[in-house]
Fold each of these.
Amino acid sequence: MKIKATAEDRMIAFYRTISLSLTSFMFLMVPAGPSVIYKSLLIIVLFLFAQVFTFYYRRLRARPRVLMLVISIELAGIIVLTLFTGGYDSPFKLYVLSPVLIAAGSLSFYFVWSLLLGYFGIVAALCYFLPGSAGKSFSEILLTNGNMFLALALAVIVMQMVNGIKRQREEANARTNDTMEHIKSLYHIVETSSQHDFMNIGQVITDYVVKLTRLEKALFWFAKKSGEPAPESRQTGWQHEEERFLFMELEKHEHEWRLQREPVFKSLPGLGDFLLMPVRMSTRFVGMIGVRLESSEGLEGRRWYIQQLMFLSELSAIILERHELGVIENRLIITNEQNRIADEMHDSVSQSLFGIVYATHSLKQSWRKMSEGELEEQIELIHDSATKVAKELRITIYSLSSKKSGGPSWLGMVRSHLKSLSRLNDVEIELKITGDDFSLPYPYHKALFRIISEATGNAIRHGAASRVDVELSLKPKWIRLSIIDDGVGFDTDLIWTESEDNTGGLGMKNMQYLAQSLGGDFQLSSSENAGTRILISIPVGVAELKNA
């Protein structure tokens, strides 16, 4: 497999080439020693070996033990080269900085300093026995090369400091990217949730708290709310029998929580140390979101947890407030629509029906006294009135039906969503639909939309797909959905394992849960560099029977 060279690999290769070129040039300029032809051949061999070692350094950066061995071999070669090209006076003694800097940038602190001190000792000891060192003490030899040893030590210290800063930045970037992905997924799940799902919003958020903080236990305690039912308090990580005790302890401090506006560290008897953050909407106190802290956590780690909980607290408050406003708005819409329909029925249909009833009653009383022509005329009048009422009812029904009135339908919303997704991400999304969704109950609409949205979003966001094919078959008794992409794919065994460990795969578990909650079957197949295929079959009516 070809390893793509990074900017760091290119910089290392450039430095090694320049340093070897300079030391080789100095070696050529020394008048003493072998002939120029011999020196030139030696330099050519050195450049070939340098290319080989550079190649293996790039290949072995993920295998530290083997990398240690290769660096040690190159260092030994440089020591031998130094001894046979002048000892103390060899220009190649400075080239040792190349493998040492690579070790300082990739390997452990102890290995680097062991390598450097070993080099100092071996060079000093071997050079001591060279003919040119006769009469010099060991301390004199160390002092003679002290500047070189000091320069090497300082270079290693600087390199390790730079590498430490780089590692911290990479970890911070990776953690930030991971956090943003989780938050986007969380917001997407909550955005498409229904009233039934919303009652379990605490469980969704606590699962994400565990994923974001990488702690084992989290909670979302909701304060009691008068009137309408509130979402249920939820936890992640505790045993079922511990849950009741946990929330009872939190309820004991309800008055304290209602006054709290900043994150608080609290020790709960028998449960451990907690970091808790109040969740407040603009109109009321909602509850507390929190994690149980590990005893080994330092100050920096706790600051990170505070940042995560503050963000999730604000996000939760926005989501809850938005949901409540949406509920109120829907009620107002329904009330206004009911009033409008009542007014229309009263002003038109009701009056016309009253006229028909009155005319029918009159005809019943007087039809024996009427001539045949008068009777036919009266029946025709009642017929015209009934036809008019039927027409007015049809108009009212059409105004209520999105299918009949030409308003936005569920399938239209699916098409619009995928079209926007395709345009925003420059991805080809092909949607094929057979059948009609008009008689499909709302829970199926909601679940299918969430599955389609989640699967296509994953294909683009994680799979880097350039094409996604969505095929939906709607039949009176069965729904079949297939979503196929040409993305990078993944190991399906790994995704389920990560999901169990709370490290990934939550989107797939959500789709599986949605399909199974309707009595359906969820099938996932994928492999690396071969795309992903999701097949779902849902029997219509099974969910209603289960909930009956």
Amino acid sequence: MKRLSLLVLVLVTLTGCAAIPTNTQPKPIGSKDSKASNTPAAPEPRQNIDPFMLVRDFLNATANPDSDYAAARAFMTPEANKNWDTKNPTIIETGFSTVPTSQAAQDKTQTVLLQGNYVGRLGSDNAFVPQLGEFRIPVKVERASDNQWRISEPPLGVYMPQNLFNTTYRRVTLYFYNPEFTVLVPDPRYVVIPPATSIPTRVTELLIAGPGDAVRDTLVSALGTETEKFSDTKESDDGALEVNLTNVGKDLTPEKRKQIVAQVVKSYSGVTSSRVRVLVDGQQILPDQRDYRPSDVSATAGETLLALNANLQGMLVTDGSIRSLTDGNPIKGPAGAGTYGAVSAAQSLDGSRLAVVSREGGGMRLRVGELEQDLSEVDQRATTLSRPTWQLSTGQGTEVWTAVDGNSVARVTRSDNGSWTAKGVNITEIMPFGSISELRLSRDGTRAALVIAGKLYIASVVRDNQDVSLRSPRQLQPSILAASVQSIDWLSQDVLVVSSSLPAWPVTKVYTDGYKMDRYSQSNLTVPVGSVAAAAARQVQVVDSSGLWSASDITDVWKSSAIRVPSGALVFYPG
């Protein structure tokens, strides 16, 4: 494509609807075009500092990413500066050390040992990837011609202490669609903050690049693969944030245009409080509306599909029967009467169907059917079955999953004649981690949270024609939760609530990218905390040895329920 002339750019900026000359192809303005031509020189390192402080100051200088980390490069020799790769920073714990090695120090050269613990890294998609373990990296330094120490062999790539990462990067949540284009799904990334005015453009670039590596085979974008920026994303004179795109795809139907608007507007909902204006080649994408707020796109984003009906207040499994969480009374039908000797259960998102795991002989059996009616036996016998979990459906639930004997996963689907049949899920990437005790599908159906050998994992649900797989598994918060996890549930599309046997972390809120973790109040709870139930716009419910407790937020003191339940009871919301 040829570049737009400066005159055309000025006209588009001033008029907003000026016609583009037919003899010139529009060209998106790339990030290189928007870089400042005069960048202030990076500050020099402090004079006469020793090698150990030099390496420490070098890592601290990574807080300034301007001009490809020029501030950190100032600590290097010219040759080291030339070869240093700054892509995909590695995040380390703030309390790192710089200590001597066993090698004897020389007058002109010395080796400093950089050691500490990993937190994670940013992938090429700017998504956080958890990383566990210690590191011990030799960093060589030498005296320069002015007798000042400089780094001659730095670590491979940027090693950024976590406190600096928190001030240098900002978490943004992009949105992409499930394969059916019925629900928008969050995909968190991290962008450099300074300068803050460039954050919208960085978000646009990531949005155009598509779903992150872990969900690339799970989510889809409404933007065509050839989409580019038409101009940088910035605030217009009237206060709206203008997202100006080009090459968004051929045959843009009104429905596809609405999907693009919803995806873009939702992706900026955590970045700006301004109205969002979606443009294609400088022209508004939909003729009937110019600017949008998140509430304008909730229907296209599928929010109503995920929202639980206000009448669905949750249930309990206790003493073999299914009871209402509202008053503790048994629900109508054989499941409530205790006919099946229920061990665990799950209610479909719309509330119309129930899946129950019951004991039978020396094993367990799954039953599925209409709520308050007889449940059909599924031909899936096992020694153990995990608590069932329902897959997203636009109507009544038609697919429910369970882990079988800890080493396989079955998805039970409903045929047109009303029968329920068990099919396998490919868990090749999951199997090496151990036995699965808990499995919870996100309510948008695109991710699975699992407890494997007491550890918390997240995986992507990938559907390829008739084959279904769990892929890209990642352990979350391994250094804190370790193998202590008891139960899990989805609070929102990208946040889990986790109960554990840890006295200091009985119930936590864990973000699915694994970077952040918030602790609920410890008041009144007794570890281990067993069953947990969570959902958007619902109180978190947990069961410990003394009964059923609820809280609305992480700062709330847990309140005891009037419903008396034994310590082994299970609490659940639809999903």
Amino acid sequence: MRAAWRRRRADATGLPRRGAERARVPGPVRGVEPGPGGGVVRFTRSELRIMVAVNGAVFWGWDGVGPEPSYALAGRCPEPDPRAVLEPDKDGGWRVVAERATVVVSRHGAVEVRTPGGVILRRDLPPRWWEPVAGGAARWMQRSEVAADARFFGLGGRAAGPRLRDGQYRLWNTDPGQAFGPGDDPLYLTMPVQMVVADAATHLVFHDTSWDGAVTLREGEEGAGSGHDRAGTCELRMDGGPLRCWVIVGTPARVLHAWASLTGAAALPPAWALGHHHARWGFGSEQEVRRIVAGYQERGLPLDAVHLDIDHYDAHQVFTVDREHFPKLPVLAEELRRDGIRLVSIVDPAVKAEPGNTVYDSGLAEDAFVRDASGRLVRGVVWPGESVYPDFTHARVRNWWGGLYEERLAQGFAGFWHDMNEPTSFTAFGESTLPRSARHSLEGHGGDHREAHNVYALGMARAAYEGLRELAPQERPFLFSRSGWAGMQRYGGSWSGDVATGWPGLRASLSLVMGLGLCGVPYSGPDVGGFDGSPSPELYLRWFQLGAYLPLFRTHASLRAGRREPWEFGDEVLKHARVALGERRRLLPYFMTLAHLARRTGAPYVRPVWWGAPEDRALRDCEDAFLLGDCLLVAPVLDHGADRRAVQLPRGRWYDTVTEEAFEGPGQVLLDAPLSRIPVLARAGAVVPVRGADGGLELEVWAPARGRGGGGLVVPDAGDGWEEPEIERYVTRWEGRDVVVRREGEGGPGEPPYPVRVRGLGSHVTDH
């Protein structure tokens, strides 16, 4: 209660009063100034800067703003495309013609993005601003129109996706304070990034401002009214920040490749992080951790990591250890590591505000904590009680915080999960975060929490990642974060946060992973079983089976929730969970390959089924299945009692990986989904790297259809370190009565260096 009143008082005195406002629009065009990759179009009351980058991305910024500085961009902005030239258009407008898109600016400030063939993908109407008469940040609104057949995806982690229906979506990282389900919004990791998929082309749009805002979407309708199409609309309202935008046009793969070149390559996890993780808030002691690990080992269940929550801290204080219950943590970590199991530590940003607390004292000496408009430390309430918050928008503070992970490494931890970093401060009423008036460095230009809030967790992740690179330079850092922003993939991944236990929560888990992947964050996953409550054996197993095919495969639960160990749900669940764990371990080389491809191409591990055919409308509407890379299609069971399910297939032949029955797409098939497994199909011709019985790498090849070829990519990886292994390319084809597999190289085709197993040879094709 005290924290809530304190926050309200801080904002009452520290925030500028808006008072009267002036509304403005750009007005008519007055002139232009050509420049590299585009130029500047001047209007009566504003100017529009346009630049087409060499990677095909289109940038524009109103009021003359440029693409930098930006928290989203990795390094410097890409070079302008010298072939893109600003030239006159009809009716007094202007246009920039580039290889992948044409940008047309009307004489009143509407901006159209067209395909090279001239089809309009997006039309942004002239923006509107509301500027305080006394000065300060201007609110603005941008309304856009897209094709009637377009579908919206993205906006960060959304429980109601992956396809975003009509409605409003807030852009403000938020701890809901309770377990969430599909109807809850916003959540922990929001981004002003949309992928818009239409018949003509796919495009990604990113509005580069970190301020609070809201996106209102309305899907279009074909043949509405008197036979005319009704365009889809997107209305974006922001409380401040620059009005600047990036648009990338192309196939989904090309779009995310260009997006990754803008915002940075995804961090590469160590191989062990692609295995199975077990976590719980409330292990409570070294003895309990050993008991759980022994349970896995006695039952022959693979386990790669154990996560310790805040209960292993001394009175919940970050970078400490409860010496009574964890007296020999480094010894425990070493014992586990000898068995191939890593320890992962939770890390919260809030620091207990108490003299004698080492982190608090060193932070005061560094002047590291957020202050209010009067220069006083901003205090909130989190798990350790009265707390202060590092300002991660200051390079010096990030450097200090990154050095603190030395204590964690000394305790034997190999990975880190960032929690409560929206940031959260418990309050009895109002928003559970810092006062909006709290002051931040923002890389030296200064500002308040309205601008810093959404990038707070991104700065924390950067601090940890860069600190770990210095402290353990031979190892790839492993971290994932509850909150973040555009560019989060540079430092690690994310997880669902406190997803509710229940069938709706299971469905929301898949939505979050797919949505984040389409925003450029390829590594994520849910709390298997849900964060709260006690799942039924059926729900737990179906969640476990889904998790086995997601990048982050982690069981986790709250202090008051039921158990999450597979043996706690009966012998039948244990038997089927063992199969899922075994399949995950068998597919680890494939997951490692997907991790390398995500780093190099921006393509997520988990992809919507329309990934290779976005023009297929039936696939665009499919939300309950996904592609795992190019080779596998996974159809989880998301409904109680289901033992069969319909699966929408993309074009081509697909094999059931258990029965080896073949199906031809496109179209819908009905597949068995007994409690023992979920349907997983392999693309004909696919080459899947798997772990053989002896632990070595093997190639699992699925026979191509007669008259067609196939292939796949393999990236062998030592498991850690910074070497960039070569991408190996394999092709498959029929030669007479045999399926032949060749490795392609500079010297021509050659024999694969691994054992090869061909599957699907005796299959018959089932019509649908």
Amino acid sequence: MIEKNYQPADIEARMSVVWEDSLAFKAGRPDRRDAVPFTIVIPPPNVTGSLHMGHALNNTLQDILCRFERMRGRDVLWQPGTDHAGIATQMVVERQLMERQQPGRREMGREKFLERVWQWKAESGDTIINQLKRLGASCDWSRERFTMDEGLSKAVIKVFVELHRDGLIYKDKRLVNWDTKLLTAISDLEVQQTEVKGHLWYLRYPIEGKTFSPEDPSSFIVVATTRPETMLGDTGVAVHPEDERYLKLVGKNVILPLVGRKIQIVADDYSDPEKGSGAVKVTPAHDFNDFEVGNRHGLRRISVIDREGCLDLVDNEDYLRDLPEGAGQFAEEFHKVDRFAARKRIVERLESFGFVERIEPHTHMVPHGDRSNSVIEPYLTDQWYVDAKTLAKPAIAAVRSGETSFVPKNWEKTYFEWMENIQPWCISRQLWWGHQIPAWYGPDGKVFVAETEEEAVSHALGYYVEQEVITAEQGREMALDRNKREGFITRDEDVLDTWFSSALWPFSTLGWPEDAPEVQRYYPTNALVTGFDIIFFWVARMMMMGLHFMKEVPFSTIYIHALVRDEKGAKMSKSKGNVIDPLNLIDEYGADALRFTLAAMAAQGRDIKLATSRVEGYRNFATKLWNASRFAEMNHCAVPEGFEPAKAKETLNRWIAHESAHTTREVTEAIEAYRFNDAAGAIYRFVWNVYCDWYVELAKPVLLGPDSPAKDETRAMVAWARDEILKLLHPFMPFITEELWEVTAKRDGLLALAQWPLKPAEPTPEQLAILAAAAGPTEPLMSPMLVMPIFDHADFTDPKAEAEIGWVIDLITQIRSVRAEMNIPPATLTALVLVGASAETRERAPRWTDVIKRMARLSDISFADRAPDGAVQLLVRGEVAALPLKGVIDVAAERTRLDKEIGKADADIKRAESKLANEKFVANAAEEVVEEEREKREAALARKAKLLEALKRLKQAS
């Protein structure tokens, strides 16, 4: 029996246990052995993480797809797991050590520190998984993976070794984004550009052979810089090759102030004659653009800032080479001074010698680490790289050919722009937590890449014996005795970028590189659901790795969802204090309400403006369904054995079957097209408007009347339509639907495994081939067809029933609308005249007179050839209905009221349009503020349109 009140918390806890105990979400169930597989891999959340609104949206949409396809008979694998999140996790554990005043990682040593991280992972690493379960995620939790599981680690090592063997992984000395706080390289994608108010320093560089004088412009060239501290590493000055001011100076030298080093003036298109002085200092070791300029002109790379962001000048051979006598003293003075403190002191020194022409305020973008918030330092260092350009080519071709498609399609442009301009991918990180790079170094620095240390030792010993560095006998002894080779080769201490391992996620989670049957059955996956912010981090890299190692794209469809913002359209952030915690919403309104809210608002290409009131509204929607189901139960509505809705005789019952079929097609097609909001909207309208507001209300006279065949049929149909609702709504609101199914449907089995109301498509030839291969020679494919429902009601239509019930509903709706517009009190009954009614209307009206009078608040229904004087005329499905309002309302007073309301609407429109026409307002106001004004304008326009329609009707009654 259904409880009186809907209590989401009780239901969710109970249903979670039911699903888990029944293994409802397990892939490869015996009953699905012959079913076509459907696979989605979860974007693995960080093991450090907890559920945020982006996770809630992303996983709700994935779950809708998985539950939908599971109900369509597919063998669904929703692969769950978490990412080790190298930097983030290491930061968490190091912060814990600091807060507890315990030894830091360097004092602990690598081995002890990693033990501590694994301990933390065991204690706290499952937090987000449990939160995803609270959301209702129907993953196959028995297959949960972690990017540092033994199997996945084996895949990472194999991929690194094979790519290195193929020349696609290599070591190079290049500039990287260096985080001086975390002491590691980070990728471009982990850098946030932050607007900073700083300065632009104009510095005078003396020209070689001329006596420098601040008053003599011919004795120096002026360069502009935002980072004067890097001038110590300058190895050139660049001017534009067509800048006439400097043509005679190209090829000559200037003397680097304070340092005395001679550096060359070069002509390069990078220099912009319109900016600053038109001349720029070139510091190849501390600026990415300068690095390229230096490469083009063969300029030296002199690194003067160390890994901790301090000047590194003493014993720096690159810096000290070619310095005039006495410059070494300057090196000692500034050695190990923080870069920002050094900036101030260097500028002071330059000013004292007359080398500063002027200083201007300058607002510019400065790169910061997205985790440390430290200013990023371009740093010249040896790192491991992937030849991303080569790997990107087939990944670009796969999207261009349509083998993989983006939804919405406009994201393909973003994908192509990044992939076609892709840079080498720096994959090494100076961390301890992560997959340690499988490279070992010999005594002379030669690199040996291998899957195991033993294999690396074997390669190294063979190489050094051949080079006669050691004898063959020494080599044999060292191979047999570990102690004798201690320190002979050492392993690279760096670990791999977190995204390297997650790039393998679609196939490493299935058991690759082992010959696991799951790889053949579930790869490639069907859809990837993710946010636009990791198209480059993750999506592109999965495409590259999947095509290279599996020779197939990892997924056929990439659905990119938008951001969840606050109700005003602002991006959620802790600093703004507008973050909405999904777990709080689940606690207050239930997971189903949150899920339905997110799905209903997930229009393609449009950010979600989330208001708590929307979640509350969909909780009320769930309550509405609960109460309707309870009403059905209290009126003994149940589906009898062998009931066939297509054979219903009552017009009302045939109408609900017709509407149910229409909604089923609408919901199915929308989910298939990733139009989640349209699917949610269709089922919402059917439940609230069609089933609850109309069908149940129109059926009440029969249900509450005497026993009869019509009553029996209506009871069965009320229950049948309710069950169809539970099926259609289940992917969106799984908890309440499963609970009601268990209590009211009285069927064997779970709703999660019930059949979807619309017959699924037959398997494609490609799918049949996958099935046949997966079955194998000893277990032949029994039946390629999916199980079909007995009554595929989505093929059912009854235009005649729809015409009759639709006329009743439209008539009542329009009468209610006029009563509301005209402020007619509910207690005041009005008459209705059907004008020039057709024979069909004259026939159906008597059948529904009592219902129409009750629901539309009418005193009488009559027929006439013309509308009475003072009547408002309604056009209902091509026929005229008239409401005589003479004596019912004060027409003059009502017209005055409407004119006043129209005036208010006009004022609101004018106010909003005035702001939107102001270019400064649109350019400077926050995006959410501008959008709010647009919404105000649209709301006022809509309000005015309704008021004008009411005024038009009022004039009819005059």
